[in-house]
């Protein structure tokens, strides 16, 4: 026992969280390899089947914060357990779907369960471990995310080759049932403070704002960000965001307590996290084009080369978390950003003659830097959250990641295309990928230079956070010495 909290079952609680995160993460990527199969099996087009992926991602992104707040009011264990049940039932129904329309509907149900799981994983781990081991525990959860990213496409291809597409969903069922049992038995049922109410208006305004923003980014990549429909969606998103902030400032128990952002270290950590997710998403979306179109690698080889990123993250995250428990979160996070900056500066020197070993040597530091940065940064955010707000802060962390990735894909993808067009003197007819490889690589190098600048800004924020933390420690010591 410690501070009135029983930590004896902390590793079993972590196992339950890890199982849930693995399921939710793997299902965001395992379906990607099945899209051509869906197109054939359901006799439909790509514009339709891609909603099997988009419906899942958009549902998760818009429900994370609502789920987090509900958990702070009703308790994390019942919401997390419900998430496992809904996800498992949704997986079963997806596997039985007779039409593409029903498959998309059942993916929304599945994603609703995944949102409950992903929103609360960090909060449950934070509650289950003492502060001295929080970084290590959150680092392990980061490794599970990386494993899910690596395993998803590979496992999906393996299942489709041996069985039918239905089994990419049915495979979740036994794991989900075991997960439900572990959650019920081992996750602590910490009761929240009574007398709390749910901010329905704030939840609706935030949901509409997030949904319209993400849909605008999704369509903007295809029809252009100057299209009147995209602009209209962005204006609606801004309007509802203003309504959300206005509502939160006026009610006693808001959806998100905006006073959290008065904690500068908390805000800095969220900003730096967003910037890193922004850059990584753009990298992951552009690299396959470079490797396949410009260097001539086959799709399978591209997958293996890109796997170095999550593998490096998975290996280093628990180590980074442990080090942050010992030496503090901010110095380790800053070290990760320095290594990440070195990696991107190195990637900006890629060429059409880059070999496999050279590519891996340049790309590996990116995965290493993310892995070192992510665990202590997450630990700082969760450690800054009041006990009664762990659920919503955990949800904010997940939304921060999702929005960072979505905007990174849209903006960095558009930037790359514009630079390719510039170098090609504006002669691209349909797509940047159809330009000469020489110009595509020049555009990629420019993109990595921009990313290096963004990482430098993130490093500046992190150093500022480190200075604030050191000053806070000095002030605390002075007060204690006077007493």
CATH architecture level-2 label of the largest domain = Up-down Bundle
- Roughly how many Å is the radius of gyration? 22 Å
Which range does the strand content fall in?
under 5%
Unreliable residue runs? none
Count of DSSP E strands? 0
Main β-sheet description = none
Helical content stands at over 70%
Rounded to the nearest angstrom, the distance between the terminal CA atoms is: 29 Å
Classified by CATH, the class of the largest domain is Mainly Alpha
User: Could you please say which CATH topology of the largest domain applies here?
Assistant: Growth Hormone, Chain: A
Q: Specify the structural class.
A: mainly alpha
So how many helices?
A: 18
Backbone shape: globular
| Residue-averaged pLDDT | 84
Query: How many structural domains?
Result: 2
Features:
18 helices, single chain, 483 residues, mainly alpha, Growth Hormone, Chain: A
Written overview of the protein:
The structure is a single chain. This protein is mainly α and 483 residues long. The protein folds into two domains: 1-199, MFS general substrate transporter like domains (Growth Hormone, Chain: A, Up-down Bundle), CATH 1.20.1250.20; 260-474, Growth Hormone, Chain: A, CATH 1.20.1250. 80% of the residues lie in helices and 0% in strands. The chain is built from 18 helices and no strands. It has helices at 10-29, 35-41, 46-49, 51-74, 76-96, 100-128, 134-162, 167-170, 172-186, 200-223, 228-250, 264-294, 299-306, 308-327, 329-347, 356-383, 390-423, 437-482. The longest helix is centred in the C-terminal third of the chain and has 46 residues, at 437-482. The radius of gyration is 22 Å and the shape is globular. The two termini are 29 Å apart.
């Amino acid at each position: 026992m410690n501070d009135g909290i029983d930590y004896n079952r902390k590793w079993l609680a972590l196992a339950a969280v890890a199982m849930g995160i693995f399921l939710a993460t793997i299902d965001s990527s395992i379906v990607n390899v099945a899209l051509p199969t869906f197109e054939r099996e359901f006799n439909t087009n790509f514009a339709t089947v891609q909603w099997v992926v988009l419906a899942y991602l958009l549902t998760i992104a818009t429900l994370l914060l609502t789920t987090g707040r509900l958990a702070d009011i009703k308790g994390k264990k019942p919401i997390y357990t419900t998430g496992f049940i809904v996800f498992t039932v949704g997986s079963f129904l997806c596997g039985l779907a007779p039409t593409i329309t029903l498959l998309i509907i059942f993916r929304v149900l599945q994603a609703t369960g995944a949102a409950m799981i992903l929103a609360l994983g960090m909060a449950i781990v934070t509650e289950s471990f003492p502060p001295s081991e929080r970084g290590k525990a959150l680092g392990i959860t980061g490794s599970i995310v990386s494993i899910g990213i690596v395993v998803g496409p590979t496992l999906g291809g393996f299942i489709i080759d041996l069985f039918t597409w239905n089994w990419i969903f049915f495979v979740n069922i036994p794991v989900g049932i075991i997960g439900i049992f572990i959650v019920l038995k081992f996750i602590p049922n910490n009761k929240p403070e009574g007398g709390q109410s749910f901010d329905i208006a704030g939840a609706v305004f935030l949901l509409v704002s997030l949904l319209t923003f993400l849909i605008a980014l999704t369509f903007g990549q295809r029809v252009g960000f100057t299209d009147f429909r995209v602009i209209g969606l962005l204006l609606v998103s801004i309007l509802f965001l203003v309504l959300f902030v206005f509502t939160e400032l006026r009610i006693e128990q808001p959806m998100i307590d905006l006073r959290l952002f008065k904690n500068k270290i908390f805000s800095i950590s969220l900003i730096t996290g967003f910037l890193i997710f922004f850059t990584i998403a753009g990298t992951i979306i552009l690299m396959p084009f470079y490797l396949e179109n410009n260097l001539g690698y086959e799709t399978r080889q591209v997958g293996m080369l890109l796997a170095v990123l999550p593998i490096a993250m998975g290996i280093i995250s628990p180590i980074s978390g442990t080090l942050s428990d010992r030496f503090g979160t901010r110095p380790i996070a800053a070290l990760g950003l320095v290594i990440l900056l070195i990696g991107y500066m190195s990637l900006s020197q890629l060429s059409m003659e880059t070999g496999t070993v050279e590519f891996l040597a340049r790309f590996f530091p990116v995965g290493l830097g993310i892995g070192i940065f992510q665990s202590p940064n997450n630990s700082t955010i969760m450690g800054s959250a009041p006990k009664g707000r762990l659920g919503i802060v955990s949800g904010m962390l997940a939304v921060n990641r999702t929005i960072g990735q979505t905007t990174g894909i849209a903006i960095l993808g558009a930037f790359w295309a514009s630079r390719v067009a510039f170098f090609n003197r504006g002669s691209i007819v349909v797509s940047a990928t159809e330009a000469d490889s020489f110009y595509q690589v020049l555009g990629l190098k420019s993109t990595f230079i921009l990313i290096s600048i963004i990482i430098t800004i993130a490093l500046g924020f992190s150093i500022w956070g480190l200075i604030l933390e050191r000053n806070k420690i000095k002030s605390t010591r002075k007060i204690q010495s006077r007493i």
